[in-house]
Amino acid sequence: MTLLRKTKYALMAICFISLLATTSVFAAVTSNELGTHGGYDYEFWKDSGGSGSMTLGNGGTFSAEWSNVNNILFRKGQRFDETRTHQQIGDISIDYGVNYQPNGNSYLTVYGWSVDPLVEYYIVDSWGTWRPPGANSKGTVQVDGGTYDIYETTRVNQPSIRGTQTFQQYWSVRRDKRTSGTISVSEHFRAWEQHGMPLGNLYEAALTIEGYQSSGQANVYRNVLSINESGSGGSSGSGPTRVEAESMTLGGPYASRSYHPFDGVTLYANGDSASYTQYFANDTHTFSLRGASDGPNLASVDLMIGGEYKGTFYYGDEHPATYTIENVRHGTGHQEIELIVTSDNDTWDIHLDYLEIH
């Protein structure tokens, strides 16, 4: 990439950022609300007392602040239609990173509900001054490089997604705190069921910050929820997995967020990349990438899975298009997916929108 082109794109990036700052800032949520933003479902919930604010970012990202609350939850993930079990939906995992600063009692957790039976569940990776839930462990599950204690508690006549009810709570609480990594949500579901703790049809799965009689703040800078084929080899039943490029981790000398010709990222030079961790139950998938060149010259980006080259996506001009690499063989379990430029010749840059896995 020439110095002139680097300067040009640096100025373009500044212009786009300035435009976003003046025209497209998403207002903070400060009262109970649920909705959809950046392809994710979100919810802000607080009972009486104190104050809180949730600012929604790109993809699954968000920031949260709370002060002198009784109970507050900030969450962003996916809501389901309550007609399917987790086995029918498929394997759920969340790749996340959080700057987490609680002052008092708080949880950094994957949170959700099931119905029939009504269950509130937590998969806790970090907490504030008190380790939940204050009960005797029913067993353990070792997953994602750590040991989690499994708990079951009963809530009597308490608020729920079905009004005031008596219901069970299921917990997995990590013994060693962490604030980034991958949470294999469905592995916890299976472990609970092995301990006589059944789930019904899923209502939601969301990365959540909860505060209880406390204050604090958190910046969720990475939150990528993936749904794949179930461990039994069946279809997820929810169509292809789509991951927005702006939710991926950027690497290389110049890779940056961009807003034209779509919300995504731009890779400018050799070594620029966008990557994330994906869970695979099966070893063969088809990959479709929407992108565009920055002009009339042919642009390309390589697909790497688990450090191995799997093919190249090509884009002939500046018009967004989707190109596909079919029947890609790869490892199972958690694998790093990387989209990386290796053949830049200073005549093109490449814009990436999203990756779909079929």
TrEMBL record:
Top-rank lineage group of the source organism: Bacteria
Keywords annotated in UniProt: Carbohydrate metabolism, Glycosidase, Hydrolase, Polysaccharide degradation, Signal, Xylan degradation
PROSITE patterns per UniProt: CBM6, GH11_1, GH11_2, GH11_3
Record EC number: 3.2.1.8
Residues spanning the signal sequence: 1-27
Active site, per annotation: 120, 210
Reaction(s) this enzyme catalyzes, per UniProt: Endohydrolysis of (1->4)-beta-D-xylosidic linkages in xylans
GO process terms (BP): xylan catabolic process
Enzyme class: hydrolase
Any one GO MF annotation of this record: carbohydrate binding
Protein name: Endo-1,4-beta-xylanase
